[in-house]
C-alpha cells in the first residue's frame, strides 16, 4: 500500500464527504478508492470513516488522523518543491473560486499573463456570489469582496476597490437627481441580500470621518451582483457597487453616478485559503500574481484621476 497516496485519498473523502466524489476529483477508479481506505484502516487498526446512506464522515480517530494527514501532505509537497524544478515551474491543478464580476471583468481577462508564466498549472475557476466551503469543496483559494469573516482561513489583502452610487437615467428623470443626503428621503434603492448570511445591505456614505448608513424605500431585493445591476438599469432605484463593475454601464450611459462628492467607503478585496495550503507553491504564485494585477497603475479596481 502506498501510504501517502492512501492519505491523499482519505483527506479528499473527508473534504468531499463521499467516496465517489473523491474518486472523481482524483481521477481514480471508485473501486481503487474503496480498497485503499480498507487497507489504510487495516494498517492503522482503527475505523477512520463512518458511512451512512447519505454521506461519509470521519470518526473521532478519523478526524484526528485527517488533521495530521493534511499537515504531512502539505509538508511533503513543499519539501519536494524545494528540491525540484517545481519551485521555479510549479505544476498541477489549482482550484479557485471568486465572485462572477471579479472573475469576468478583472481576473480572466488578465489570465493569459499567468498561464504564460506558469504553463504547467491547470486552473479550475468557479464564478459565483455564494460563500464556498474550501475544505469540503476542495477549493485551494477564494477571492472575496468585503470584510473577511472566517478567521480559520489565511487572508491576503489584494486591493481596496473604489465604489460609487449609481442610478439609471430613466429613474433620475422620474425621481430627480439627489444633491444631498437629505434629498434621498424621496428616493428608492435596490436592496442586496447575501445568499449566505441573509444580511440585507442598504446604502453607505463616507461623510468626513463618519460612516452614514441609509435605508430607503425599496420594491425589489436581489441576491446576485448581475441582478443588482439589472434592477438598477431597469429603474428600480439606487445601488452602490465597485467602480470596475460599472465601467461598461457608465461608458454606455445606461447608468449615471450620483452624489459623487459623497463616495461610499472603499471595499476590500481579499484572497483567502486554508492554513494547510499556505506552503503550496501553486497557491503562492497565483496570489502573488493577483497582487500584481490588483496593484497595477492601470487596474480598473481604482478610479483613474
Give the CATH H-level superfamily of the largest domain: Periplasmic binding protein-like II
Q: What is the terminal-to-terminal distance?
A: 62 Å
Q: If you consult CATH, what is the topology of the largest domain?
A: D-Maltodextrin-Binding Protein, domain 2
Please tally the β strands and state the result. 15
CATH top-level class of the largest domain: Alpha Beta
Query: From the structure provided, what is the oligomeric state, counting identical versus distinct chains?
Result: single chain
Q: Structural class of the helices, strands and pairings?
A: alpha+beta
Question: How many structurally independent domains?
Answer: 3
Task: Please explain how this structure is put together.
Belongs to the LysR transcriptional regulatory family. Pfam families: HTH_1, LysR_substrate. The protein is α+β, with helices and mostly antiparallel strands. The protein folds into 3 domains: 3-82, Winged helix-like DNA-binding domain superfamily/Winged helix DNA-binding domain (Arc Repressor Mutant, subunit A, Orthogonal Bundle), CATH 1.10.10.10; 87-146 and 278-295, 3-Layer(aba) Sandwich (D-Maltodextrin-Binding Protein, domain 2), CATH 3.40.190; 163-265, Periplasmic binding protein-like II (D-Maltodextrin-Binding Protein, domain 2), CATH 3.40.190.10. 39% of the residues lie in helices and 23% in strands. The chain has 10 helices and 15 strands. It has a 5-stranded mixed β-sheet, covered by helices on one side. A 3-stranded antiparallel β-sheet has the order 13-7-14. It is elongated and about 75 Å long. It starts with a helix and ends in a 10-residue tail after the last helix. The model has no long low-confidence stretch (mean pLDDT 86).
Amino acid at each position: 500500500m502506498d501510504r501517502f497516496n492512501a492519505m491523499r485519498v482519505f483527506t479528499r473523502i473527508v473534504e468531499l464527504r463521499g467516496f465517489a466524489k473523491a474518486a472523481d476529483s482524483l481521477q481514480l477508479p471508485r473501486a481503487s478508492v474503496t480498497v485503499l481506505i480498507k487497507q489504510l484502516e487495516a494498517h492503522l487498526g482503527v475505523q477512520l470513516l463512518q458511512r451512512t446512506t447519505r454521506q461519509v464522515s470521519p470518526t473521532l480517530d478519523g478526524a484526528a488522523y485527517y488533521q495530521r494527514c493534511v499537515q504531512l501532505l502539505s509538508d511533503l509537497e513543499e519539501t519536494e518543491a524545494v528540491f525540484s524544478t517545481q519551485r521555479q515551474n510549479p505544476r498541477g491543478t489549482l482550484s479557485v473560486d471568486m465572485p462572477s464580476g471579479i472573475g469576468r471583468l478583472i481576473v480572466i481577462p488578465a489570465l493569459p499573463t499567468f498561464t504564460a508564466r506558469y504553463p504547467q498549472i491547470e486552473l479550475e475557476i468557479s464564478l459565483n456570489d455564494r460563500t464556498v466551503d474550501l475544505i469540503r469543496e476542495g477549493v485551494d483559494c477564494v477571492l472575496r469582496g468585503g470584510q473577511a469573516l472566517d478567521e480559520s482561513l489565511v487572508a491576503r489583502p489584494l486591493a481596496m476597490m473604489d465604489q460609487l452610487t449609481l442610478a439609471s437615467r430613466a429613474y433620475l428623470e422620474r425621481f430627480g437627481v439627489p444633491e444631498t443626503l437629505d434629498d434621498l428621503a424621496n428616493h428608492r434603492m435596490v436592496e442586496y441580500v447575501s445568499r449566505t448570511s441573509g444580511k440585507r445591505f442598504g446604502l453607505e456614505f463616507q461623510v468626513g470621518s463618519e460612516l452614514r448608513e441609509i435605508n430607503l424605500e425599496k420594491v425589489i431585493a436581489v441576491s446576485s451582483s448581475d441582478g443588482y445591476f439589472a434592477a438598477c438599469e431597469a429603474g428600480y432605484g439606487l445601488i452602490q457597487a465597485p467602480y470596475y463593475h460599472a465601467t461598461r454601464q457608465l461608458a454606455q450611459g445606461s447608468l449615471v453616478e450620483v452624489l459623487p462628492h459623497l463616495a461610499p467607503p472603499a471595499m476590500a478585496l481579499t484572497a483567502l485559503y486554508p492554513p494547510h495550503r499556505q506552503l503550496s507553491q501553486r497557491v503562492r504564485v497565483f496570489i502573488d500574481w493577483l497582487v500584481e494585477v490588483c496593484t497595477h497603475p492601470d487596474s480598473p479596481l481604482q478610479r483613474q484621476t
